[in-house]
Amino acid sequence: MIRVHRLSKSYGSFRAVQDVSFEIERGEVVGFLGPNGAGKSTTMKVLCGYLVADAGEVEVAGAKLPEQGPLARARVGYLPESTPLYRAMRVDRFLDFAARAKGLGRSERRAALARAVAAADLLGYLDRRIDQLSKGYRQRVGLAQALLADPDVLVLDEPTSGLDPNEVVRIRELIRELGRTKTVLLSTHVLGEVSELCPRVLILSGGRLVADGAPHALAAARTSALFVRFTASLGSARGSFDALEGAFDVSDVPVTNGAALRLRTDDPDGLATRVLDLVRERGLELVELRHEAPTLEQVFAAHTGGRDGRFDAVEAGGPV
């Protein structure tokens, strides 16, 4: 559905996107991540036909950009972060206006409006002025607009930004349902949203694609940790682990009772076996042993110049 090969785009001397390549198939819901200025918005605007790339090949739903711009734009539904709505209009009249702007004929418009209104769950709100709606329902109007032409591809930029928790849940459910039949590229800074909705993520940093894969696979590629808790004192627990020094980095974890250590390692399964052998050998009383995989937040930071994903007591959420 989406094919991007060596895409580059500059604004004057500033290189916003550099040599980016990826493919997304029908039915995929893909998270599009990156810090501010990473090149996400530029890439999305190229995919939607709003900008022309300086170099590279872009294909959306079988249409090449910019050569087949009108055809590509007809197959993409775009919801920008700041939803462009005529707020003085009623919902039904705005959607009819948007359908006309998309080139839908009279017979097509009726079916398109009914389909988009049902998908965005706007029944009962059609005669309301847009400026009388909550932000969540204004987002629904924007999404209905993006769905009018029944596009194969949806590009959504921060669709839940500023919504209350109930509205966030509703929009996420709607995105999940749309992803059953359409290709969805979801840009958001809410990483929990990505973990919930997206089996795959793309991460941009400095205009380059720095990561592409399932969140759990990207996390697995980072250094993990074992959390080990004993009833013994911290001194005796640490002394018992002298035999394993060099296999991991050790940090103390404050706990109410007993002692706890966090062992940072590239081989958590192998280290867990060694820990259990040591516990039996030294006669320690083990209270807890668990693998702590890096979070998506830590993976994001590691790929975009933030913290390197190392574990500490507060960041990893260990017992206190």
Automatic annotation (TrEMBL):
Its EC number is 3.6.3.-. SUPFAM superfamilies: P-loop containing nucleoside triphosphate hydrolases. Belongs to the ABC transporter superfamily. The keyword Nucleotide-binding applies. This is Putative ABC transporter ATP-binding protein YxlF. Keywords: ATP-binding, Hydrolase, Nucleotide-binding, Transport. InterPro entries: AAA+_ATPase, ABC_transporter-like_ATP-bd, P-loop_NTPase. Residues 2-231 form the ABC transporter domain. The keyword ATP-binding applies. It comes from the Bacteria. It comes from Rohdeia mirabilis. The gene is yxlF_6. Pfam families: ABC_tran (PF00005). One of its GO terms (molecular function) is ATP hydrolysis activity.
